[in-house]
Amino acid sequence: MVRRILFSALLVLLLSAGARTQTTEILPLDQIRPGMKGVARTVFAGQEIETFEVEVLGVLRNFVGPDQDLILVRLLGDNVLHTGVVAGMSGSPVYFDGKLAGAISFRFGIFTKEPIAGVTPIENMLRAAQEDTQMAAELPRRYRLPEPSLAAVGIPTGTDAYLMPIETPLSFVGFHPQVIRRFSDQLAPYGLLAVPGGSSAAPGQSAPLEAGGAAAAALVTGDMTVAGTCTISLRIGDQIFACGHWMLGYGNVELPMARAEIVTTVASDYASFKVTNIGEVVGRFEQDRRSAIVGRLGSPPPMVPVDLRLEHRGRVSEYHYQIFQHPKISPLLLNLTLFNGIFNSIESGEELTYRVTGRLVLRDHPDVILDDMFSPSDSFFPDAFFVVNSVGNIFRQIFTNPFESPAIERIALRIELIPERRAATIENAWSDQSEVRPGETIRVKVVLQPYRGQRLVHEILVPIPAQAAQGQLRILVSDAPMLNRITRTMLFGFGLPGRFRPGPRVTSLEQLIRLLNRERRNDRLYVSLFQRSPTLLVEDKVLPSVPLSQMNVLNRQSAAGQPGGTLLFYESILSETSQPLGQVITGSHWLLLTVR
Questions:
Q1: How far apart, in whole angstroms, are the C-alpha atoms of residue 175 and residue 305?
Q2: Which residue, 372, 390, 418, sits at the end of a domain?
């Protein structure tokens, strides 16, 4: 009882804070009774906050989790009878006799005949603001929320038989409709309903930042914008409570808060939703919890700036935007925006070769260099995805590395769209000598078959290293992926293709960056020399032909558990020679020489 009294006192202090906000009385959950009638507030179009009636059907105890109750209500009035429960209505405050009881946040599945909704009690929403403070640590354990990763467990979705969090309309500004459709399935598990959005809201056109008004959580801002819109449940000074449920379920966040203009509400028997224009960023959401998202007006949070330049048939398109920083969704947001930029620059159906250059700029670390070429394929899969996945994979490895939180200051990309298929296949290769001596230079001739072109023979000079031992020498003439797979296997063992698996031989972000920058490029022809001699791998360093005495010392250190794991191979890569050819190379061929 003492704890309940202290908690009630805390709520009163919170609700009475803020000189710019009138004091809001709350109605405790234990005073809610079936049959009670009240009102809810939301925006259906424009700036006007409208009210509609609600009737309490009952209280669902522990519905969302332990001590996470839900008030079940029926919505009344012409607007809601026409639209039903609307995506974007989440957070609409509910009052009984002028006292705030909670926010509309849940609905039954599609095709319901009545607009019945679940209301998150205001006590639960206020607790969300205290999750990361000393005050939360002092609250009784039964008032604490579980970790965000558990928030979605145990709540069935996707069926009419269960209450589910109301979808959050995710507005896309500056995106092609086909791009939205391609990525909407990846966003749906978050409860995000992809909808088109217009240009940014004009100043003064946004709904007021008060209870019943609209606010947006922006995942992407700038020349492209992606933002989810909820209704504000409560404002205490500069603090904003919204949604009545999570946006992404990430807990502590730094998610931009923006103004929003509700253009209209689209009624649908399947799923009604609000169409929104997104305005300027006015602060940040700091909590993304089961019962609410909580933010504060003021300075915007740090984001990842992206500068994208696309060149196609003499035209240049530039995009400058920022993406929300979080390891679970930032790689997806980068893929989404890159694909949209490319898609908006191409002419339907044309074959394109993509030339990508750029860099990821990190604070206190070397830049990650991006330099590669991609040719079109005959598959139905969009060719631009090869570009997007390559850049996105590098970004994901840096952003989700297990060593430290990277400070990515900028992503700068230049993508040249070349209107032809620049590709060639390695058909054959031979050397002008079958026996060589250390220090000599041999001529390797490679037969290349360009796409729909005449065969050509390319010659490359390959020096034989002075340390080459007598015996057989294998020469690999190959493309970049083949050589990358061999070296990845040596460094990391058998793992996911195209992705490093940091282990005992990669122990820092610095080493990971060096390995990424060492990756071969698709537009180069590679000639590598392999010989049967011991190679020792120490962290990310390859030591060929190591003397036996040093090898024994390093192996003993590794066996004793000392830092810097080692791995022994019985074949060495003696040297690697490459030449840029201005087209994507595929294929491989092995040669065999003898060193005298």
A1: 18
A2: 418
**pLDDT at res. 67:** 78
C-alpha separations of 49 from 169, 210, 212, 232, 272 in Å:
18, 9, 6, 11, 18
Domain that holds residue 340: 304-418
Distance CA 457, CA 452 (A): 16
**Structural domain ending residue among the three candidates 300, 317, 348:** 300
Together in a domain, 279 and 161: yes
Lowest mean pLDDT, pick from 114-128, 231-245, 256-270, 561-575: 561-575
- Which tokens sit at 535? 């190679």
CATH code of 374's domain: 3.10.20
Backbone φ/ψ region at 298: left (φ over 0), alpha (ψ -120 to 50), beta:
left
- Span 197-220, pLDDT tens digits: 876 656 666 778 999 999 999 999
Q: 346 with 460, same domain?
A: no
* Claim to verify: residue 463 and residue 370 sit in the same structural domain: no
In this prediction the pTM is: 0.83
Closest to 65 in 3D by CA, of 152, 127, 189: 152
User: Average of pLDDT values for 406-413?
Assistant: 95
Query: What residue spans of 248-319 are helical by DSSP H?
Result: none
CB 272 within 8 A of CB 87: yes
